Amino acid sequence: MLRKIKKVFCSALWLVLVITVTVSALVPHKSPSVFSTAKSQEAVTTQGTEEVFYCPGGMSFGVRMETKGVLVVGFSRSSKGGECAAEKAGLSTKDVIEKINGKSVNTVAEVIGCIEGCGGNKVTLEVMRDGDTKTVSFLPEKDESGIYRAGIWVRDSTAGIGTVTLVNAKTGEFWGLGHGICDSDTGVLMPLLRGNVYDISVVSIRKGKAGAPGELKGYFSSALSGILMKNTAAGVYGRFSEYDASSLTPMPLANRQEVKEGDATILCTLTNGKVSEYSVRIVKITNPKGDAKNFIVEVTDPRLLEETGGIVQGMSGSTIIQNGKIVGAVTHVMVNDPTRGYGIFIENMLNATA
């Protein structure tokens, strides 16, 4: 039964707030000391000749992200009622358009400009598909108003909220989510061109119940707090421009062999705006050698169950602590049982961005 749930009945916890531009196109205040707490030798690791001070997260954050290239999310019918020319020529949903007639494109507006300005000539798209570059050529069609169209729906950006898992108190680098930011329609990992990070205020919570995952509802602050540098299948990586290092306490990291079934805690931020710790239980190690969905975690804390119903969207990245070590992050909720979800090993998150 758990295997079936794992494959079918789980939902990623990255809460998409808005798709900043979706097209038809037919076509923390600065601290005077970056590390003011006492060193914990267990929590200090060495990368080359440099010490790294890892601290648990649990704070909510928001991301506005622009894609590298433009993602194809669908097609419209041609003026004759059949497949559009681009689809007939072999363009597919999940393709990422990187160039049109040799010109790099990263926005919807750039795609529209290339298509509308084709002058009735064939256009050639260079697209990324499953890690390989493909070319697709076709003749755009005129619509009723005489404007050339490609018949494709594309997307160049997204935004949403999640939770920070880990912070390097010395540099402001952070890791979060525990899974990648993916397109809401196609499920494709969105290629990152640039991303901005913002503080988030959680203003309300929709409790989760069987069959209907809950969510944190919040809004972005107006001030930029950092940048996103990598979007991977095992989470996101970035750097805070301003953060309060005095509030961060280093903690050792557990390797995957140290994670055991049993009691643990998670860190997350709810409507009080403070990082709080809640009791959970790691009930099963499901994928000890894999890159994701490594174990199942169950919320046991009455306070969290009362406020959220368990695990809700927006809690992606909530830090999991066991036996005084950071072991991973919450990543998905079981749709049919919101008190349970999946977690990822912290070493997988770090390895993905190395």
Question: How would you characterize the overall build of this protein?
Answer:
With 354 residues, the chain is mainly beta. The protein folds into two domains: 261 residues, Thrombin, subunit H; 88 residues, PDZ domain (Pdz3 Domain). The chain is built from five helices and 23 strands. The strands form three sheets. It has a six-stranded antiparallel beta barrel. A six-stranded antiparallel β-barrel has the order 6-13-14-17-16-15. A two-stranded antiparallel sheet has the order 11-12. The longest helix is centred in the N-terminal third of the chain and has 9 residues. It is elongated, with a radius of gyration of 22 Å. The two termini are 35 Å apart. The N terminus is likely disordered.
- Any idea of the CATH topology of the largest domain? Thrombin, subunit H
Please estimate the helix content.
Answer: under 10%
CATH hierarchy, class of the largest domain: Mainly Beta
Instruction: Please tally the helical runs, counting DSSP H or I stretches of 4 or more residues.
Output: 5
Poorly predicted runs are 1-8, 17-50
CATH architect. name of the largest domain: Beta Barrel
